[in-house]
Amino acid sequence: xxxxxxxxxxxxxxxxxxxxxxxxxxxxxxxxxxxxxxxxxxxxxxxxxxxxxxxxxxxxxxxxxxxxxxxxxxxxxxxxxxxxxxxxxxxxxxxxxxxxxxxxxxxxxxxxxxxxxxxxxxxxxxxxxxxxxxxxxxxxxxxxxxxxxxxxxxxxxxxxxxxxxxxxxxxxxxxxxxxxxxxxxxxxxxxxxxxxxxxxxxxxxxxxxxxxxxxxxxxxxxxxxxxxxxxxxxxxxxxxxxxxxxxxxxxxxxxxxxxxxxxxxxxxxxxxxxxxxxxxxxxxxxxxxxxxxxxxxxxxxxxxxxxxxxxxxxxxxxxxxxxxxxxxxxxxxxxxxxxxxxxxxxxxxxxxxxxxxxxxxxxxxxxxxxxxxxxxxxxxxxxxxxxxxxxxxxxxxxxxxxxxxxxxxxxxxxxxxxxxxxxxxxxxxxxxxxxxxxxxxxxxxxxxxx
Length: 450
Ligand code: S3P
What we know:
Layout: E1 9-11, E2 18-22, H1 27-39, E3 43-47, H2 53-64, E4 68-71, E5 77-80, E6 94-95, H3 100-111, E7 116-120, H4 131-139, E8 143-147, E9 151-157, E10 166-168, H5 174-185, E11 190-195, H6 202-209, E12 214-219, E13 222-228, E14 237-239, H7 244-256, E15 261-268, H8 275-282, E16 286-295, E17 298-306, E18 314-315, H9 327-335, E19 340-343, H10 356-366, E20 370-374, E21 377-381, E22 395-396, H11 402-412, E23 419-421, H12 434-441, E24 446-447
Parallel strand pairs: 2-15, 3-14, 6-7, 10-11, 18-19, 22-23
Antiparallel strand pairs: 1-23, 1-24, 3-5, 4-5, 7-9, 8-9, 11-13, 12-13, 15-17, 16-17, 19-21, 20-21
Helix pairs in contact: 1-2, 1-6, 2-3, 3-4, 3-5, 4-5, 7-9, 7-11, 9-10, 9-11
């Protein structure tokens, strides 16, 4: 998983995009489904699980710590959990591949169990900061031996019983919030996280659904989330809604390719995840939510997206937490808009699977777009609907970042000549069917020789 060979991809304009797509299950909810079911007592069933490499890394790690996880013939997954406090010592290092969410949330789980675990990952994950998680978990009693800079590979020893803390998040991060709450699950007393800026709330919603005693209060200091430890989780039946981050690629693709008209089915519309829809609508995109419904306590809708003339905007910085993974594809939308788009206040993009500010600046520049890089975002001069010229035979560097590869593949859908991407293999971390779905909509991605 950590050493896949590079797979170059070529893509240029084909026909307008038409048809209906179903996006894979939400990545955040898929990870949490396996972890929480793995801690419940009894059998849980999960339908619509994202079967991408990142989520499979979580499944493998939970198995290595004792959970019984099986993919059934009908594509659903059954999980028999070990019970909170029941995780076993893994016999080998846990390979997290490319997945920051697996790493940081599982570190939270291990922190309050009496076990030692080693976490390893690919070159991208091994560069990402882990101190944001190891610091609060160390306050709870876990002990860490890390690589220089607090990075992977690292070995941690959990403490049982761990010590409850009240922790104010210094950065807006659902992963850090979740790691502490998960450590709190097996910690006596009340563990509190104070979140000055709200981030995705899947851990809170799902833990409550699994029967944990978790309360959320809105206070002048922010959202205060309190979990009572030594919890017992009850098994659940979960339908994972479609991933809005994956849907984002099709929203932008249909918006920029003239003549397009598509429907994206079953998209999660949780308000902590819909920043891209809001930003694209500000740019003039035609995105209509139809048949909005409730699935397992989450709002879900089908999205009808038609080609539209987009205009450059100043992207409201307060949308950042609800579209943090969508900036690369928003930058592509901006490249085709009329006028200038300024996206600032998104410094966290520097520490994602790649430095997404620098990586997208380089990728769009190679494709002929005029881009100015800032410490916390980009200014992009839009082409007013004009197609790209292509990358002139040069290859965009995706730097082991799935969202860079998919964003630049979408850019290629409105390009006279080919946009070449040096490595699209990372797409399999979050969206294994992306290339097939692009083809089914009328785009023409092609694998090329390495
Ligand atoms: C995620 C939180 C976000 C996001 C990531 C998934 C989660 O990370 O970028 O893809 O599932 O909690 P941060 O917490 O680092 O912002």
